[in-house]
Design a protein that fits this description.
By secondary structure, the chain is mostly helical. It has a domain at 20-64. It contains two helices and no strands. The protein has helices at 6-17, 25-63. It is elongated. It is a single-pass membrane protein.
Length: 65
């Protein structure tokens, strides 16, 4: 692999950064809203699963007494 000089490296980095396409404000907001919705739904789902397992374990432990 050929070594590049620091100056050539900086030029390559600048060329690559010009290719970056940033999302629009609307896309960023929509993505953020979707993240909040999905984390809320997943949180409720896992809360329900945890409550179900808690009830099962408590039932099984009550049988042992």
């Amino acid at each position: 692999m050929a070594k590049t000089s620091p100056v050539e490296f900086v030029k390559q980095v600048q060329a690559e950064t010009k290719k970056i396409v940033w999302p629009s404000r609307r896309e960023t907001v929509m993505t953020g809203v979707m993240v909040v919705i999905m984390t809320t739904l997943l949180g409720m789902f896992f809360f329900g699963v945890d409550a179900m397992f808690d009830a099962i374990v408590r039932f099984l432990l009550s049988l042992a007494q």
